[in-house]
Amino acid sequence: MPDLREQGILGALSRAQQRRDLTSSRLVELALHRTAASADLNAVVCIDADAARAAADDIDRKRTRGDTLGMLAGVPVLVKDNMDVAGLPTTHGSKLHAGAGPALTDDRQVARLRAADAVIVGKTNLSEFAMEAISDNLVFGATHNPWRRGISPGGSSGGSAAALAAGLIPVATGTDGGGSVRIPAALCGLLGLKPTSGVVGARPARLPVELSCAGPMASTVADLRLLAQLGAGPAYGDPSCVYGPDPGWTTRPLGKVFATTRVAGQQPVAADVEDVFTSAVGDFARAVDRQAHWLPPGVLPAAADEIWATIYAAEDVYSVGSDLLRTGRRLLDTRVLAWVDQGLGVTLEEYLAARQARNDCVLVLDQLLAEGNLLLTPTVTAAPYPVGGSTGDTGGLMPIDLFNTAAMNLTGHPALNVPAGYVDGVPFGLQVVGPRGSDLWLIALAEVWERYRPWPLVAPGYEPFLPSC
């Protein structure tokens, strides 16, 4: 589908509506039908069909009148269930919020999607409080990977990734505090971007350090570029949101292409993962006409992941509410209790020391990526794992060294997952890390990769979200 890759699914839907070949109402009905037909994936946890139909009808009337419409006019969207949608509950996949009433306002990213005239259809599954690299919780259960039932789509944005990989919806939101966009994108065969810190602002905005942010996932580079541009921009009241992607990067020459199996630490990666990664690095280097320069494992200090964990666990607990977590322990999944206890136990001295150590990590990557250099790593260093995440963990969270993602949340550099092969029949993701501010440049390089080594738009047995006209 060369033309579809060139214009993207979103571009195709927009053009079909402009030609009056499709209506927003028809797109919403398709989303509702596909979501119901693939309920066994358990990707979607809430549907607001009446509101979606009403919004679609409104878009169709505006189009008939000739009104000016936004870039996502009439496009159905699913929202990760840790982002507020006015009129819908936000459960965070936790029994602590299972009886939550409807949100009164939209999350910043949801508001930006509505401003582009997108139609919110419902919400997607995640791990409890987005604290785990699976999408399983005590409220809704586990989400399955469309590529193989019983295998996790990753997390914590796994419900959104599964919905995209199954063609249930053309847009589904994600957030990334330690890899929660890139990990499910890798395991579901999608593109997934963690923007430069400050491009879209922190999530939640009240946190003092911008480790977590919203990030787009898509099956085509054209769609990813559009969503990245729509999601970026200043946010009033959020001091972490200070600039957008640097457009000057799109014309800068590419420097060196570095590759390593480990960003932090020296633990070996799974043998089959290393084989696929080595092949992908060679192909990527050829695609961008560069030689790959291999670095030993441990580009950053071995403690980088622990530094991230100290900062993020403390802020995560504060974000959720330390008093709520203390009094509601019996309602929490045992898998997240270790993380909660770690956050509750961080002292001010430990937090400030981690903040200082974070600056040292930023400097190391800034120096490595100077002059337009890239760093390639496996996004996930383990073989595909079950929906419950039992990959060597002993009742707590999965080991952080199963992933190469958290370090980029720590340093703030943009990191993009691109599909790059398969491990045991499940997609493998290559993480491409660039200098801070180079988000659009990374997307342009992904476009080169897309032409060189195209990947399926959806998992086998599913169809892209394109109704016949």
UniProtKB/TrEMBL annotation:
Q: Name one Pfam family in it.
A: Amidase
Spell out the Gene3D superfamilies in the cross-references.
Amidase signature (AS) domain
* EC class of the enzyme, as a word: hydrolase
Q: Where on the tree of life does the source sit, at the highest rank?
A: Bacteria
What sequence ranges are listed for the domain Amidase? 27-439
Q: Which SUPFAM superfamilies match?
A: Amidase signature (AS) enzymes (SSF75304)
User: Which reaction is the catalytic activity of this chain?
Assistant: a monocarboxylic acid amide + H2O = a monocarboxylate + NH4(+)
Provide the GO MF annotations for this entry: amidase activity
The EC number(s) given in the record are 3.5.1.4
Protein family? Belongs to the amidase family.
Name of the protein this chain belongs to: amidase
